[in-house]
Amino acid sequence: MNTEITTRYSSHPEDFKSYPTSEIRDKFLIEDLFKADKISGVYTLEDRLIVGGIHPVHSPVQLEAVDQLKAENFLDRREIGIINIGAKTKIDIDGASLELDHKEALYIGKGVKEVIFHPSPSGDTYLYFNSAPAHQEYPTRKITRKDAEVVTLGSLENSNHRTIYKLLVNSVLETCQLQMGMTELKPGSVWNTMPAHTHDRRMEAYFYFDLSEENVVSHFMGQADETRHIWLKNHQAIISPPWSIHSGAGTSNYTFIWGMAGENMDYKDMDGIKPVDLK
């Protein structure tokens, strides 16, 4: 098999308060998403989201059903969102082919049987994906940055000048529960998602990229009155439970992909927390 998915269990916020750094990293950090000629990732019991990476190098790789799904095909009861963070690549979907360019997104709905990812001629094929349970079939659709709902927020003075690309959200296309987008921080800005927030109606996963080898991001999580942090490198992801804030600051600007699953599709459904109230 070329599809390898491991399982992570849910955690209670009261238990989280006692975790040392090593346990936070073991339970929430995904360090090695891209393996040559593999589809790999984590099946988290936080809303049963799958967070993964696709890295064809020498040959195409096919999306295969994994044991956690108890299904004949990966998308029999699921939808998937894919964002290309590497070179332009070709993807076959039930016999039809399309090309996905750098920082373009692809939605594939429930019921698709065969998905094959091809390596690019440069060998620099990196595709990040989230997959969530689905109750209804929606059509496959590619979303470019021009198709996205785009919002620019923050300021250089507050170190958080950023552009948000809402790619796979219900204001752009129909999905069952999955929402994904991408936030690019401007040069000189390092803070994301500040002021922080939580949303009990859905969980979230963050994936950080566009970071050089010498730069890192400090990601903050936990309940607002007792936060923790861990350090992430380029091409690493973090699972954020519904009760946790999800915010970060880097040693340089960077880009991150946010993905959400849960029962509420309203992007603005957030319980805001003032920075001065964080502890």
Automatic annotation (TrEMBL):
<dbReference type="GO" id="GO:0008697">
    <property type="term" value="F:4-deoxy-L-threo-5-hexosulose-uronate ketol-isomerase activity"/>
</dbReference>
<feature type="binding site">
    <location>
        <position position="246"/>
    </location>
    <ligand>
        <name>Zn(2+)</name>
    </ligand>
</feature>
<comment type="similarity">
    <text>Belongs to the KduI family.</text>
</comment>
<dbReference type="GO" id="GO:0045490">
    <property type="term" value="P:pectin catabolic process"/>
</dbReference>
<keyword id="KW-0413">Isomerase</keyword>
<feature type="binding site">
    <location>
        <position position="204"/>
    </location>
    <ligand>
        <name>Zn(2+)</name>
    </ligand>
</feature>
<dbReference type="InterPro" id="IPR007045">
    <property type="entry name" value="KduI"/>
</dbReference>
<dbReference type="InterPro" id="IPR021120">
    <property type="entry name" value="KduI/IolB_isomerase"/>
</dbReference>
<dbReference type="GO" id="GO:0008270">
    <property type="term" value="F:zinc ion binding"/>
</dbReference>
<dbReference type="InterPro" id="IPR014710">
    <property type="entry name" value="RmlC-like_jellyroll"/>
</dbReference>
<protein>
    <recommendedName>
        <fullName>4-deoxy-L-threo-5-hexosulose-uronate ketol-isomerase</fullName>
        <ecNumber>5.3.1.17</ecNumber>
    </recommendedName>
</protein>
<comment type="function">
    <text>Catalyzes the isomerization of 5-dehydro-4-deoxy-D-glucuronate to 3-deoxy-D-glycero-2,5-hexodiulosonate.</text>
</comment>
<comment type="pathway">
    <text>Glycan metabolism; pectin degradation; 2-dehydro-3-deoxy-D-gluconate from pectin: step 4/5.</text>
</comment>
<keyword id="KW-0862">Zinc</keyword>
<dbReference type="InterPro" id="IPR027449">
    <property type="entry name" value="KduI_N"/>
</dbReference>
<dbReference type="GO" id="GO:0042840">
    <property type="term" value="P:D-glucuronate catabolic process"/>
</dbReference>
<feature type="binding site">
    <location>
        <position position="199"/>
    </location>
    <ligand>
        <name>Zn(2+)</name>
    </ligand>
</feature>
<feature type="binding site">
    <location>
        <position position="197"/>
    </location>
    <ligand>
        <name>Zn(2+)</name>
    </ligand>
</feature>
<dbReference type="GO" id="GO:0019698">
    <property type="term" value="P:D-galacturonate catabolic process"/>
</dbReference>
<keyword id="KW-0479">Metal-binding</keyword>
<dbReference type="InterPro" id="IPR011051">
    <property type="entry name" value="RmlC_Cupin_sf"/>
</dbReference>
<dbReference type="Pfam" id="PF04962">
    <property type="entry name" value="KduI"/>
</dbReference>
